[in-house]
Amino acid sequence: MDINDKLILLIIFISAFTILVKSIRYYSVEKKGLVVTTLIILIVTSIAVLTVPQFASAIGLFVWITLLLLPNLGFTKIKNAIHNNQFTQARRWLGIMRYVYPFFDWREYRDFINMSELAMQGNLQQAAIIFERYQNKSTVGSMLLSTHFYRLSWQWEKYLQWIHTHFPDENSQNKPLYLSLISYHVRALGEMGYLEEMLMCYQRHQARLHSPALQEINTICHLFIFAFCGRIDVVKHLLQHNNLKSLSVEQQSFWLATAQLAANQPTEASFRLTQLINSQDIIIRNSASQRLAQHRLPVTLTALAQQLLAAITVEIQLEQKFNLNAPIAIKKIYITYLLIIANLIMFALEIFYGGSENGRVLYELGSLIPVVVWEGGQWWRTISSIFLHYGYVHLLFNMFALFLLGSFVEMRLKVVKYLLVYLTAGIGANLIFLWIQPHNDITTVVGASGAIMGILGCVGALSLYGWRTQRAQVAHRSLKLVATILILQTIVDLSIAEISFIHHISGAMIGFILTFLLLKLSRASL
């Protein structure tokens, strides 16, 4: 079993075990299928490792893709189709998922789609029959179905009464089930014109909405809040966010029109809404008609509301600075693309000259070998080895990490500092390895891992800086994510002898220290 197989197996075990622990911790009827699925993955892969180790990685990967990756993609397809009111497409995906993921109870999803289609056709009486079967249940699916019925029928006052019945006090509103519905609560308050109460409702739960699992809901709350408060520029910015990419063009236009009405731009808003009345989507048509019929007045915020809104504005600005999932201006990350291209070119040369796992080829192209560096004086290998990789798995993981982390760092440090951190961490990790290893060691070292771990250390430094200087919750969250990645990377390093722990930990430390020095010297305001 080579290093690529070991790496694949380790990732399968770690990902499945992590999901299993989270599912058991927050166990519910909805989580039952996920518990069964991850147990099957762990059991099948373990049996394969013990009985047919030469095929274990292939078997484990097949089971992982079939039972975990594909269902996740299917859930995403269903969710996006529902968000865009494409219920025929959602039903089609539901039919597929019932066979791929049989451990899940799909009845609530089926009824949800049926009710939505009936409502879209204007048959609210038939939709209400389905709604009545679920309105007193307390599962996630039934609560979402009830919420969706009130949204489709535009009964926001009744929805507020319903949600206060199910979640009457702050203690009950601290439950995960309420947090999954909070964006609808926020919208209902906004639709009724209770703007100060809307802002206070969000503020009460703001800290918990910083959880990674609730980031999408948090962004949707932001969209509703700033639309109802008439902040057109912020709404335009939010609609570019990764968490709102599933919104259709018509849905985006509807929320821009809502913001324009609140900002006393009735002409522009009426033009948008009039266009939406001709939409083929009946829900969009009904929503646009309802908005035009409301005759909403320009917003006038109280002093408290303005203060709360200003605090949320600062939160969004900090999210843009310190959130690893913040939208990236793809056209501006030149250096990250160039580094990825350089690594791909070197990998193509490895394949052309005989293979990326061929020791002779790696030596000729510049792999790091302590005895060759010390006795032959070939110090240039401390640079060239950063752009070589052993096998496609090694390359793919490193390039994926470089894109995610490098894009974030390049947008914040800009070109020169970004390159300085990347190359210093990569070369520095190689030099530390040479210093620790015996001079006559013939170990072959390749990979951009030291440089990429330097970028991870840089993210940690930027996050710590943001937490210490601006008390940004998102920076604190990113800092914890960096710590988690470091722990997982250490587990991987210590589990697979072929992976260099020295390179990874030293690269991360160099990136962290160098970034902090750069911030201190430049007194940068991130």
Chart the SSEs and their pairings:
Layout: H1 3-25, H2 32-51, H3 56-83, H4 87-100, H5 107-120, H6 124-134, H7 140-152, H8 156-166, H9 176-179, H10 182-191, H11 195-205, H12 215-228, H13 232-238, H14 249-262, H15 266-276, H16 282-294, H17 303-322, H18 334-352, H19 359-365, H20 370-376, H21 381-384, H22 392-436, H23 449-470, H24 473-495, H25 501-522
Q: Could you name the key traits of this structure?
A:
mainly alpha, 526 residues
Care to describe what's here?
The chain is mainly alpha-helical. The chain is built from 25 helices and no strands. The chain has helices spanning 3-25, 32-51, 56-83, 87-100, 107-120, 124-134, 140-152, 156-166, 176-179, 182-191, 195-205, 215-228, 232-238, 249-262, 266-276, 282-294, 303-322, 334-352, 359-365, 370-376, 381-384, 392-436, 449-470, 473-495, 501-522. Helix 22 crosses helix 25 (501-522). The longest helix has 45 residues, at 392-436. It is globular and about 85 Å long. The mean pLDDT is 85.
Give average pLDDT, whole number: 85
Using the CA coordinates, give the radius of gyration.
27 Å
How much strand?
under 5%
Shape: globular
**Class based on secondary structure composition and strand pairing:** mainly alpha
Which stretches are poorly predicted, pLDDT < 50 over at least 5 residues?
Answer: none
**DSSP, total strands:** 0
Q: SSE string, helix = H, strand = E? A: HHHHHHHHHHHHHHHHHHHHHHHHH
How many helices? The count is 25
N/C terminus separation: 46 Å
Biggest sheet architecture: none
